[in-house]
Amino acid sequence: MDHISYTGSGPYCYENSLAMMLGKAAPSTAVIEFATSSPFGMQLIGGKLPFFDPYGWDPTKAFDAALGAAGWTSTLVVGRDTDDALAHLLEALDNGPVFVGPVDMGHLRYHPDHSSLSGADHYLVILRVLGDWVELHDPHGYPYASLPLRDFMGAWRAAGIAYGEPYMMRTGFRQVGQYSEEDIIRRSLDVARRWLAMHGEHDLPPGSVGNRMAAEQLALQIREDHAPELRDHLVHFAVRVGARRLADAATCPARIGYTEAASIIGRQARLVGSLQYSRGRRHSNGGGNPSDIGRQL
Q: How far apart are CA 285 and CA 58, in angstroms?
């Protein structure tokens, strides 16, 4: 069966926020995601927490490469403390919206489920600070949301987020080159290969593994341990974003003639997507349950 490109909702806060910052010159979110290299690998952090992204990868490590492939630059600002971060934010807002994150979703009280989202990372576009309130675009479905400044600063402190630093923001977005989406895909390939090959040193907890070992250990974990925390993480986030990333990654190389790679990635997208509801079912991909699918990955 041919790969069918996906268009729809999903946990693409990072890519959607970046697209908002780039405005009318932004590539599609599929191409942005491809340029971050996020689809190229899998990791099991500490041997327990699965993510369908490369070993050692997190969004903060992908930003400059993705932006550069698209022909853009920006300035990273990290606040020293609450007062310093707010001062930099107010100064940056004089020149337009500001890309902020990671933030802790547990503090985003306009979100109906915020109380159950503590420790979940997120990205926002800040529009204005009006007295004790912040106006923002939240790509999770909340345009022009308002949040008390105190809650926003708590979210931005990101105390429960396992990567990045408190009070990170990006300003000064500037286009330095113009590239077609096909060119951006080509310009992203070398970085994607390095992530897929698990090159470099990574600051990960003991027991962390990547790629094949991560898939095999996850399959074993699913078969032997039915912990609700693992299931919730998979069905509410990891599978959704992993399948979306792979679906986009299958679409992009096909656009530049890499049909064999696109076919392989498309099969991976189907396997990951089928994990969303697979226990006790038979699948056309040949797997009967999540542990079978994990081994195929």
A: 29
Distance of CA 91 to the CA centre of its chain: 27
Paired tokens of 146: 């308002």
Q: Report the C-alpha gap between 270 and 146 in whole angstroms.
A: 38
Domain boundary assignment for the chain: 81-165
Q: Using an 8 Å Cβ cutoff, are 249 and 34 in contact?
A: yes
Alpha carbon separation from 163 to 33, 59, 61, 101 (Å, rounded): 19, 9, 10, 11
Cα 16 to Cα 151, 165, 266: the distances in Å are: 22, 21, 22
Asked if residues 14 and 99 have their Cβ atoms less than 8 Å apart, the reply is: no
> pTM of this prediction?
0.89
Residue with tokens 């708590």: 154
Q: What is the pLDDT of residues 231-273, one digit of tens each?
A: 889 988 999 999 999 999 999 999 999 999 999 999 999 999 9
Flag whether pLDDT at 221 surpasses 80. Answer: yes
d(CA 1, CA 259): 14
Please state whether beta strands 133-138 and 168-175 pair in parallel, antiparallel, or not at all (unpaired): unpaired
